[in-house]
Amino acid sequence: MFDYNGTLALDGKLLPGLAEELRQLAHQLEIHVITADTFGIARAQLEGLPVALTLTPLAHQAQAKQEFVQGLGAASTVAIGNGRNDRQMLQAAALGIALVQEEGACAATVAAADVVCTSVHAALALLRHPRRLIATLRS
């Protein structure tokens, strides 16, 4: 499960190279994108990609994202985001990945994450190569 702006997109536009990565990942995982769509172009940017898009109202986004994770089954969900409204989503998911990219990240969201990555490409690589996650999360 992905947030959109600041995670998959910058200023509403899908980040370069992500379309193909999402297509590849869709062979392994069901991909959901949840967003309030600040720029109003998420649907167009994701058109033709194997993702399920859910638009949320501006009010109560954090709660809506958390409830969405729970509806998917938190124990088997990976949540990836960067904003304050993603904190609860990352906490609820079995694996929460915070991203610190060009838009930055909310410190509380980073603190709530299990893993922090510096790019969505790195986060996707962790999902494609789970042994990297094992190395990162072992204690």
Keywords:
3-stranded parallel β-sheet; 139 residues; single chain; alpha/beta; 8 strands; Rossmann fold; 39% helix
List the helices and strands and how they pair.
Layout: E1 2-3, E2 9-10, E3 13-14, H1 18-25, E4 32-35, H2 42-46, E5 52-55, H3 61-72, E6 78-81, H4 87-92, E7 95-99, H5 107-112, E8 115-117, H6 120-128, H7 130-137
Parallel strand pairs: 1-4, 4-5, 6-7, 7-8
Antiparallel strand pairs: 2-3
Briefly characterize the structure.
By secondary structure, the protein is an alpha/beta fold. Helix content is 39%, strand content 19%.
Question: What would you say the CATH architecture is?
Answer: 3-Layer(aba) Sandwich
Computed CA radius of gyration, to the nearest angstrom: 14 Å
Helix proportion range? 25-40%
Our estimate of the beta-strand percent is 15-25%
Count of domain modules: 1
Structural features, described:
- The chain is an alpha/beta fold.
- 39% of the residues lie in helices and 19% in strands.
- The protein is built from seven helices and eight strands; from the N terminus they run βββαβαβαβαβαβαα.
- A three-stranded parallel β-sheet has the order 1-4-5. Strands 6-7-8 form a three-stranded parallel β-sheet.
- Helix 1 packs parallel to helix 6 (120-128) and helix 6 (120-128) packs across helix 7 (130-137).
- The protein is globular, with a radius of gyration of 14 Å.
- The two termini are 26 Å apart.
- The model has no long low-confidence stretch (mean pLDDT 97).
